[in-house]
Amino acid sequence: MNRSTPQSRRAGAIIRDHRNDMGLTQAELAAACGDDPNRNYIQQLEQGLITVPGVDQFNKLQRVLKFGGWEFFRAIGYNVGDPVEGVLYPLVYALQQCSHEQQRALIPQVKLLGSYNKDDEEGEGDDGPSPRVPVRAGRN
To answer: Each residue of 28-53: pLDDT tens digit?
Structure first.
């Protein structure tokens, strides 16, 4: 018999919370994943009975539920570091290579990649102005 741990239950709660936020049943989530993982697998994962899902199953769940993988692996005890720190500098560098027009087009897409916390910037939420990244000299 499989036994859950506090870490596997936390990780299962992340899957369950994201599924519930999307208004999906376990069966609907399984169908959206092409029935791999199936409903029984999802149920066991949410209960913490499966500690680490298979790569294919995890990638499908992540794609359908649209959550950060770091969040799940941090819950089961992996030191994943600061998820923003690992992405911020390469992202800023990539944006610096773009024109102002390209930056304006990309910022809404970047916001979709993760959750936007309105408390991070006082008074500015999704309706507020998009941040601008300085462009290197010689770019439009």
So the answer is: 999 999 999 999 999 999 999 998 88
SS (H, E, C) 93-123: HHHHCCCHHHHHHHHHHHHHHCCCCCCCCCC
- Whether residue 72 contacts residue 7, with contact meaning beta carbons closer than 8 Å, is answered with no
Q: Does residue 59 fall inside a structural domain? A: yes
Q: Residue 97 sits in which domain range?
A: 82-140
Instruction: Among 75, 97, 118, give the residue marking a domain's end.
Output: 75
Omega before 53 within 30 of 0, i.e. cis: no
Read off the tokens for 4: 């859950």
Rounded CA separation 42/57 (Å): 9
For residue 123, give the amino acid letter: G
- Six-digit token pair at 60? 């499908």
Q: Are residues 92 and 48 in the same domain?
A: no
Structure tokens at 27: 């069966």
The identity of residue 47, as a single letter, is: Q
